[in-house]
Amino acid sequence: MNIFEKLETSSPTLPKQYNEMNANELIYRIRTIKEKMGTKLFLPGHHYQKDEVIEFADVRGDSLKLAQISASHHDAEAIVFCGVHFMAETTDILTGEDQKVYLPDMRAGCSMADMASFDQTEKAWSKLMEEFEDTIVPLTYVNSTAAIKAFVGEHGGATVTSSNAEKMLKWAFTQKERILFLPDQHLGRNTAYKLGVPLKQMAVWDPLNEELLYEGDKSEVRVILWKGHCSVHENFTVANVHHVRETYHDMNVIVHPECRREVVALSDKAGSTNYIIDTIAQAPSGSSWAIGTEMNLVNRIIRQHPDKHIISLNPNMCPCLTMNRIDLPHLAWSLDSIAAGRPVNRITVNKSTALQAGKALKRMLTRA
Fold this sequence. Notes:
The protein is globular, with a radius of gyration of 21 Å. It folds into three domains: 3-109 and 322-350, NadA-like (Rossmann fold, 3-Layer(aba) Sandwich), CATH 3.40.50.10800; 113-229, NadA-like (Rossmann fold, 3-Layer(aba) Sandwich); 233-312, Rossmann fold (3-Layer(aba) Sandwich). The chain is of the alpha/beta class. 43% of the residues lie in helices and 15% in strands. Helix 3 runs parallel beside helix 15 (328-339), helix 5 runs parallel beside helix 6 (85-94) and helix 8 (146-154) packs across helix 16 (351-365). It has helices at 3-10, 16-20, 23-37, 51-54, 63-72, 85-94, 118-132, 146-154, 165-175, 185-194, 238-247, 261-266, 273-282, 295-304, 328-339, 351-365, and strands at 41-42, 44-46, 59-61, 78-80, 100-102, 136-141, 158-160, 178-182, 202-206, 211-213, 223-226, 252-255, 269-270, 288-292, 309-312, 346-347.
């Protein structure tokens, strides 16, 4: 049973009445409470949220940006994070003690973050220390649990985002000879390759079988990639790129670096969610784009730029299923419970974990 299955069995469930309300009733409740609470309530919304939810967000963005902005809103006593669990954890770490963070649906998790548990990481670190001794610095993508961030912070490492991963890998190589990159192998591989690290110097750690996947002289290994991935971005394929090239000869392909190495290699551009949004916004009218990222965002970009020909790189792609747990009924329930003084689904990170995770975040924030 993973963390989100545990949360689903232990957390309060959505009262039946919210599923029985129509959209107009739910919207009215949400708007009324937002107006009543004013600046005491803050709703950050991730780019991958449904339209019905994102329209109520006070700010839109990527996970770290939203956590930082939430922390800057000192008047906000209640922060209802419209995103997933690890994002709300980061927000709790960065915000003040008088601010409380809530997640409308505790089942809103991240399959990638769930691919690296604290116990798995401790076992991996012990075995890697036996193999490589004290030559490794750990880095973790912010798309990871607070426990993993804390592990990395305690062992001298830092967090990274898809925007600053290149800068943080450069820093890490000034600290130690090797890097352990958690939990997304694709972002780690794409970034290291861009920095000039050949694929033959990258190994993969398999946490399920507790083994290092590598053929050759292990002394040549410079980057150890955790065997994890984004279940959305891994579904963009080489065949998708070839189909676009064959069907639309003037179309640009832009993808997220959580995609597989071979997909990034065939694309015209690759970058973070904000990079994709900004690139399309700045592109000339009439230009054509195939975007390899989450479907809710792609559809929103298509509507925002009717002067451009935009499609999803994979037309059969589904939205992020865990991100889509947040919906109008859960958002209305969350706000109702806060307004009534009986809040549900509060996200808290214990002080010791927050302290160590904060070190990993700070090492990034002071350099990126």
